[in-house]
Design brief:
The complex is a heterodimer.
Chain A: E1 2-5, H1 40-47, H2 53-56, E2 60-64, H3 68-80, E3 83-87, E4 105-106, H4 118-128, H5 135-155, E5 180-181, H6 187-204, E6 208-211, E7 214-222, E8 225-233, E9 239-243, E10 246-249, H7 270-277, E11 282-283, E12 288-294, E13 317-321, E14 338-339, H8 341-345, H9 355-367, E15 379-382, H10 389-408, E16 417-426, E17 429-430, E18 443-445, H11 463-484, H12 497-514, H13 522-537, H14 543-563, H15 575-599, H16 623-626, E19 628-634, E20 650-657
Parallel strand pairs in A: 1-20, 2-3, 2-10, 3-6, 10-18
Antiparallel strand pairs in A: 4-5, 7-8, 8-9, 11-17, 11-19, 12-16, 13-14, 13-15, 15-16, 19-20
Helix pairs in contact in A: 3-6, 3-11, 4-5, 5-11, 13-14, 13-15, 14-15
Chain B: E1 3-9, E2 18-24, H1 33-46, E3 71-72, E4 75-76, E5 98-102, E6 111-113, E7 116-117, H2 120-127, H3 149-159, H4 166-170, H5 177-188, H6 197-210, H7 221-225, H8 233-248
Parallel strand pairs in B: 1-5
Antiparallel strand pairs in B: 1-2, 3-4, 3-5, 6-7
Helix pairs in contact in B: 2-6, 3-5, 5-6, 5-8, 6-8
Classes of the chains: A alpha/beta, B alpha+beta.
Chain lengths: ~675, ~250
């Protein structure tokens, strides 16, 4: 590992107090308008260059990913008249992992008349993110939240309704108002189907060309601008270039760096890592969210973890026995011998504290030896005291209770659920400005794949909001500013040397993986990576642990390239080859995650450094030295380097300072 | 426990394919069915099995993406009701059992490799009209369109379809009525869905028929295997709307 700040010659040691200015980089200008925050989005939409309706069909945009952000963007760009190519690795765009989001989507409608407002949603999101988000972006997100609900309802998204037929709301962690719209525990599914149906409508109208079972394996730059991508057709193995006037990545998060996470098996970092290798800066990669309410790990052969929606914390009470290693059944433990530890530690928010706080509290209790279930890594989520009993529970959470009982073989109506934190969401991602443009001109990044809105911790029901805001409203408005400058210019042809070179790199890498003749399976290496990351870059991090992890990840990367065994050929559906390519990228990315966690010498949100805690064990932020976004640049040979796992990664640290204009940072208190 | 999996192996659409028996050792009751396939695949890779690992579709592994799905002992998604293949756990099996594993079988879902099939026909049915035509930005205030609870609930129940294709695989005729009816019911009972209701119905039924799915003859096998318990009544609703649509205007040519 090489870590440098600019100028690289006299970079300080990691952790040493630094002169912030040495890290500043002109490319990291957010470019948000500077007027009153509530007028900035209007201002920006007025400033952007427009493309007139007749000219829109002259522009071709590539959108990678078909989740909420990708499908919404592809559909909306198609409606506007642009020509769009949309890519996804699944067999249908409807299967993107947004489908699995359960609990809901926030919007500042204030339908409950409980004091909500755009400013309050903005404030809650900035505070929930532990003051590490860019205020202008978050305010825009809160503004657009109301439009999203309107759009979804018009599409026929069947949100929960009250008996008057009006939309219902529930409350969620990190907020004291009820602003979460939901469709039982299937909100992500219903919102994604809304976006997917709009996308299919555009596919039928031939404004969008859909490429299913295609994986993006490189971004191609010509003259420093994103001009296309290289894909592998997962059915035939064909490696092919696609060129366009702009490339949009909406490829989700990287929780699968931990192997076990709530993400789908195919979720990966490849698209954004390839873009990073081509020069896009990667922001705050250590900001990962460990979700408090997941079903505990059952054993070695486990392939993924399943989330139980945070909405369950509305009614469910979290507890453990007061006595360590209490072997009694939950029902036999009387109330006075139970420790409702969230209600005890955080009386104001109780079971509805934000996710990072709830996860750390559960970990601390289990580390004390008071966890429940096999292995002792679990806490109870109990619905005994829910008003309305089983009927009310079934109505609100029926599908979640069924899911739980299928996985565990236990009946959660009769005995409390057992839950434990698991990697779930990643706040970090490619750095983007207010327009969602990355540091590569012509490359835009949406949804979980970018870093922009959630700071160091995302509040529940805000991921769906951000993905859809980016896809339906932000990108379609801002991309014209870039495209207008391209009027009259055809996209660079895919016969250009840059495309040929990128194809050759992808082909070489594929051949290298298939020809390796090693002994270890891809999964065995991925599992080992997951253990290293969970142990040292998970809920609690320390410099010592992170240094150890970096060494282990580097070793694992060498092991991978020298000893991985990838069966089959490149000319047919080959799922081992797909996994191998993704794991190879995780093995590089993981080192950056650990490095980022090491240089951020503070605790904030989901990033918890053992060296930086208050006497009560709460996260201790350092606003003086760390009120910035860390954006990493890859030095050295970039895409050409490191394909064999031997070449060290050169990481150059850059920073975007964060300015608190409207929300003054304070010690986050949920007591 | 130790099990025998009798698995369909097929290298591509043109290969005849056939069953191969595999012994899987060390399966625990907490494992899911797909984790059992993972375990088998790990051993097929390390032992250098000539067929290599078994290709099967899967992604979310929590029963919502609809990408997984195989016939297990002749039943789509296996023996448990309201369960996708990824949600089936091995506690329902006993040591020494033999389990038959096959891909969906339907002319409209050609086999790609081993247990993987092509369900692109479902996307094309949706593209033919499975949406409400509302461009981004043109939506009215959400609460201006109240939806009575009974309709909202009926719509939501139908909208829960995950597009896995179990209904087609289970149907002796290979019909896609339940899939198509689920989307039509989701949209056709909502006030927002009324303007396009009859055009949508005609278009989707025609698209379904053009894809080569069979006809519905009320076997109700689809409802029995549907992991999301989409009710058979949605097909009755499809038929009613289709008849009404046919009487209102000539079908589009």
């Amino acid at each position: 590992m090489t870590v440098t700040g600019a100028p690289a010659t006299d970079a300080p040691a990691i952790g040493a107090p630094t002169d912030q200015s040495r890290y500043f980089d002109a490319r990291l200008a957010a470019k948000a308008p500077t007027g009153p925050i509530e007028e900035r989005w209007d201002q920006r939409r007025f400033q952007v260059k427009l493309v007139n309706p007749a000219n829109k069909r002259r522009f071709h945009v590539i959108v990678v990913g078909s989740g909420l952000a990708g499908a919404a963007a592809a559909a909306t760009l198609g409606e506007l008249g642009y020509r769009v190519s949309n890519f996804c690795y699944q067999d249908s765009p409807r299967r993107a992992h947004s489908i699995a989001a359960q609990g809901g989507i926030n919007a500042a409608k204030n339908y409950q008349n409980d004091g909500d407002s755009i400013f309050r949603l903005f404030y809650d999101t900035v505070k929930g993110g532990d003051f590490r988000a860019r205020e202008s972006n978050v305010y825009r997100l809160a503004q657009l939240s109301v439009n999203i609900i309107d759009q979804a309802v018009a599409q026929g998204v069947p949100f929960a309704r009250d008996y008057a037929g009006l939309l219902d709301n529930r409350s969620f962690g990190g907020a004291q108002v009820s602003r979460t719209f939901y469709a039982a525990g299937q909100t992500g599914q219903q919102l994604l189907l809304g976006a997917y149906q709009s996308l299919e409508r555009q596919i039928a109208a031939r404004t969008v060309e859909m490429y299913t079972r295609h994986e993006m394996l490189d971004v191609v730059l010509t003259d420093g601008e994103a001009s296309g991508i290289v894909t592998r057709n997962l059915m035939t193995g064909e490696i092919k270039s696609h060129s366009a006037h702009a490339v949009v990545l909406a490829t989700g998060g990287y929780s699968n760096a931990f192997f076990l996470s709530t993400n789908a098996m195919g979720c990966n970092v490849t698209a954004i890592w390839r873009a990073h290798r081509r020069g896009a800066l990667m922001a705050n990669p250590c900001f990962t969210q460990i979700h408090p309410t997941c079903i505990p790990v059952h054993g070695e052969n486990q392939s993924k973890l399943t989330l139980m929606s945070e909405s369950l914390r509305n009614d469910g009470r979290i507890w453990v026995p007061k006595a360590a290693e209490d072997a009694r059944a939950a029902a036999d433990i009387p109330d006075e011998e139970r420790d409702y530890f969230l209600e005890r530690r955080y009386p104001a928010f109780g079971n509805l504290v934000p996710r990072d706080v709830a996860s750390r509290a559960a970990k601390a209790i289990c580390d004390e030896g008071r966890g429940v279930g096999p292995g002792g890594y679990g806490v109870y989520l109990d619905f005994r005291d829910t008003a309305g009993g089983a009927t009310a529970i079934a109505e609100r959470y029926g599908n979640l209770f069924e899911m739980y009982s299928k996985i565990t073989g236990e009946d959660p109506y009769a005995t409390p659920m057992r839950i434990y934190p698991a990697p779930h969401y990643t706040m970090g991602g490619l750095w983007v400005d207010y327009d969602l443009a990355s540091t590569i001109p012509g490359l835009f990044v949406l949804g979980e794949a970018n870093f922009s809105d959630h700071g160091a911790n995302r509040l529940g029901a805000s991921a769906l909001m951000q993905g859809l805001a980016d896809g339906y409203f932000v990108l379609p408005a801002t991309i014209s500013d870039w495209l207008a400058g391209k009027l009259g210019k055809q996209p660079v042809g895919t016969d250009a040397a840059e495309f040929r070179r990128a194809e050759t790199l992808v082909q070489d890498r594929t051949a290298r993986l298939l020809g390796n003749q090693g002994k270890r399976t891809v999964d065995s290496i991925h599992k080992e990576l997951g253990r290293v990351m969970w142990d040292h870059c998970g809920m609690a991090r320390s410099e010592e642990g992170l240094r150890k992890a970096i060494g282990e990840v580097q070793q694992l990367r060498r092991d991978f390239w020298s000893d991985v065994k990838v069966t089959g050929e490149g000319t047919h559906l080959n799922q081992e080859l797909e996994k191998a390519g993704r794991v190879a990228d995780f093995l590089e990315f993981a080192e950056l995650m650990c490095t980022d966690a090491m240089v951020r010498e503070e605790s904030c949100g989901g990033h918890y450094r053992l060296e930086h805690q208050t006497p009560e064990g709460e996260a201790r932020r350092d606003d003086e030295n760390f009120a910035h976004v860390t954006a990493w640049e890859m030095g050295g040979a970039g895409p050409e380097a490191g394909a064999d796992g031997e070449a060290p990664l050169e990481m150059i640290e850059r920073r975007e300072p964060l300015v608190a204009e409207y929300v003054q940072p304070s010690q986050r208190s949920y007591k | 426990m130790n099990l025998t999996l009798r698995v369909w192996r097929q290298t591509g659409p043109d290969d005849a394919g056939g069953f191969v028996d595999y012994r899987v050792e060390g399966v625990t009751e907490d494992m899911s069915f797909l984790e059992t396939l993972d375990l088998l695949n790990e051993s097929l890779i390390t032992s250098g099995d000539p067929h290599g690992p078994i290709a099967f579709d899967h992604d979310c592994r929590e029963g919502i993406c609809g990408q997984c799905g195989v016939m297990i002992d002749g039943v789509a998604h296996g023996p448990q009701p309201a369960t996708t293949t990824c949600q089936l756990h091995m506690r329902h099996y006993r040591d020494g059992e033999t389990i038959l594993v096959e891909p969906w079988r339907s002319a409209a879902f050609p086999v790609v490799r081993d247990l993987v099939v092509d369900r692109g026909a479902f996307d094309r049915i949706i593209a033919s009209g499975g949406y409400i035509s509302v461009a981004t930005g043109s939506a009215p205030e959400a609460n201006l369109t109240p939806v009575p609870r009974p309709q909202a609930d009926q719509s939501f129940t139908a909208a829960a379809c995950i597009g896995c294709g179990a209904c087609v695989a289970a149907c002796p005729n290979g019909a896609a009525q339940l899939f198509t009816a689920a989307k039509l019911t989701h949209l056709n009972v909502l006030p927002q869905g009324q303007p396009e209701r009859y055009e949508r119905t005609i278009a989707m039924v025609e698209a379904m028929e053009a894809e080569g799915f069979g006809n519905c003859t009320n076997h109700a096998e689809c409802e029995a295997v549907c992991p999301k318990e989409i009710p058979l009544g949605t097909i009755a609703k499809l038929n009613r709307d289709y008849i009404r649509a046919s009487l209102r205007a000539p079908a589009k040519t």
